[in-house]
Amino acid sequence: MKNNSSFELQEFFPYKLVKVADLVSRGFSEIYTKEFDITRAEWRLIAAIGEHQPVAAKELVEITYMDKVKVSRGLQKMEQKNLIEKQSAEFDQRSVLVMLTEEGEQLFGKLIPKATEWEAELLNALSAAEYKDLSMSLNRLVQQLEDMNKA
């Protein structure tokens, strides 16, 4: 039975976003899983900690856009691999600050150039102006979605 609807999944904007996100995730994961033997959660945590350290563990939930359980498990695995160290925050003994160890810093130093190289190859498809427009548009969509989800 043929449906005469004008709906086309391939042109449905949320579908396109999910497809792009999935392709980016799969493509980039080749680097961090094969070359560095880390998971997606660990990659995001290493990048966030490297950028913001020392950082409160609870802040990593917002920074990485991962849930508390994933952050907690990721930090636990990273601690077992000696990639991070934790210490109690001076301002609040219940709060834990996370930093990269020397080993974590070395991994961060190897990962970031690979990440930016991969990003540059991806963005070769866009001009500088197109990238700027896309980035601004994505920021507006994030804000719109956050507003919609609050309502």
Automatic annotation (TrEMBL):
A Pfam family recorded for this sequence: MarR_2
Molecular-function GO term, any one: DNA binding
Domain of life according to the entry: Bacteria
Ranges of residues in domain HTH marR-type: 10-143
Keyword annotations from UniProtKB, A to Z: DNA-binding, Transcription, Transcription regulation
Protein name per UniProt: MarR family transcriptional regulator
